[in-house]
Amino acid sequence: MRRFDSITLRVATVLLLCLLAAQWIADRLYQEERERVVSHLIAGPLIQRLSLVADKLERTPRAEREELLRILNSPRITFTLAEAALPETPADSLSKLQARLRETLGPRRQVTVAGETGADDGDLPTSARISFTLSDGQVVIAAHHYPNDSALAPSRHLPLLTGYFLVIAALALLALRWAVRPLQRLAQAADALGRDLGGAPLAETGPREVRQAAHAFNTMQSRLASYLHDRLRILAAISHDLKTPITRLKLRSEMLVDTAQREKFLHDLDDMETMIAATLDFLRGESRQESGVLLDINALLSTLRDDMQALGSAVELHGEANHPLLARPQALKRCLGNLLDNAVRYGANAGGGAHITVEDSAKTLTLHIDDHGPGIAESELERLFEPFRRGETSRNRATGGTGLGLAIARNLARAHGGDVTLTNRPEGGLRATLTLPRGGV
């Protein structure tokens, strides 16, 4: 059913149904015209001959009629004398013939027609038996054999119509694919736009509507890139302007005589600096300046595990990637680091560390990062990806962080064409799942 959402499939289905309907109508018209022509070419001479034979038999003595009929017989039609008329069981295709014979020979002749149709010829009769009664009560039966001419068979034209149908359908499908291809390019460019605003603009070629859509897309891409460039320049200025007063405040705090007050001031300034740096990282996006390279995921995970263990956090690694992944190294490292930091921070109170499980396939690389924390309410799982939303409700930066780690991780994952999701583990704790496509960035 999902495949039926394709414009190509929908239009192709309508087109093929219309072609089939046109073929069926053409076939019905052919059958009607053929029946009319056959009736004219065969029924006309037959009626004329039967009328002449009936008139001649009326003028011939009864004893000489059988000899006369032997002379009148031909390969196409034979005459015999009988005691009783045929039962009236005409086929559909012979009903008109019977009506015309009764009209020509007259009602006193008591004309009846019986016949049969061949399996290969559809409604075309293969033979007809016609009985009529003379004025003295003598019954004459005429057995008429229709010509066995393949040109009259309706099945002869079916292969030709089928060939026409297939050729027209193939040409129509090729034309449809050619017409829809610009839409596919537009969809691919729109998908890539979220990962790289600096990509090449679309070629503004093709039909007028396609050129208009491509021009609108290129204009949108240019405006977004300009907006992002302006925002980054503002952020760089803000970062520089904020670091200067924070540095001055730190220097002044060092001069405080009261040790307790000095430590509080320095702690608050460190928190402020950390929040500013995290916010700028989130707004700036670390993946924008990097190019994709083939990255050894196993080596990256081992390095992150060793770094976390060196800081006193227990991290276990299970499974491995089968092949390198096309990715942005620093961005992916930051994404995984944020997920590991989150797992270690919230699992520390339960006395456990983090567990990394690698699942690799031909199309997708999946990394599961599990912790032994208390878990999160189902209604809050998606909200944790909002900026400054923290799973730990206290304002303690040491236990709750800045609330930007998961938001940054998801942004970096989506910049790779993947995603990050959170689920509660049945055995307790939280699972963060990072999914990355094998197609690269």
Strand content: 5-15%
Average residue pLDDT: 77
For the biggest sheet, the summary is: 5 strands, mixed
* Secondary structure category: alpha+beta
How many separate domains?
A: 3
Question: Considering DSSP H and I runs of 4 or more, what fraction of the residues is helical?
Answer: 40-55%
The radius of gyration over CA amounts to: 45 Å
Q: What is the string of SSEs from the N terminus onward?
A: HHEHEEEHHHEHEEHEEHHEE
What form results from the Cα inertia axes?
Answer: rod-shaped
Strand order within the widest sheet?
Answer: 6-8-9-11-10
- Show unreliable segments: 118-124, 149-154, 393-399
The termini sit apart by 29 Å
How many beta strands in the DSSP annotation?
11
**Count of individual helical segments:** 10
Provide a descriptive summary of the structure in words.
The protein has 441 residues and is an alpha+beta fold. It has 3 domains: 2-156, no CATH class; 208-271, Orthogonal Bundle (Helix Hairpins); 291-437, Heat Shock Protein 90 (2-Layer Sandwich). The chain has 10 helices and 11 strands. The protein has helices at 7-58, 65-72, 95-105, 158-193, 208-254, 259-284, 297-310, 329-347, 397-400, 405-415, and strands at 77-82, 112-117, 125-133, 139-145, 293-295, 315-318, 325-327, 354-360, 364-370, 419-424, 430-437. It has a 5-stranded mixed sheet with strand order 6-8-9-11-10. Mean pLDDT is 77; it is low at 118-124, 149-154 and 393-399.
